[in-house]
Amino acid sequence: MREVYMCPDYLVSHPLFMDYGSDLATLAKKDYPAKDYFCGKEIPSIDLDEFERNTKRSNDCTADGVVGIADVVDAKAPTHNLAAC
User: Fold this and answer.
1) How far, in Å, CA of 38 to CA of 80, rounded?
2) For residue 72, is it left (φ>0), alpha (ψ between -120 and 50) or beta?
3) What is the rounded distance in angstroms from the CA atom of residue 25 to the CA atom of residue 59?
4) Count of CB atoms within 10 A of residue 76's CB?
5) 83 by DSSP, 3-state: which?
6) pLDDT band at residue 21 using 50, 70 and 90 as cut-offs
7) Is the pTM of this model over 0.85?
């Protein structure tokens, strides 16, 4: 059996989080100012728009953020990853 869950500890230890750290509520507010997606939730993320702007990369049709996830297969040690959102 495979389980995927949020892993904020992995994300906040990522080197890009130091310069581009944000949270999903803030990122969602940029695109959907009239909505309250993720409000009241502590979901850290890396702001990809800010990263693309500062590194002079195109942000056409790209994800807005990255969250930390971990997946566990058959109760073995988790594998940590970043997931675009």
Assistant:
1) 22
2) beta
3) 20
4) 8
5) strand
6) very high
7) no
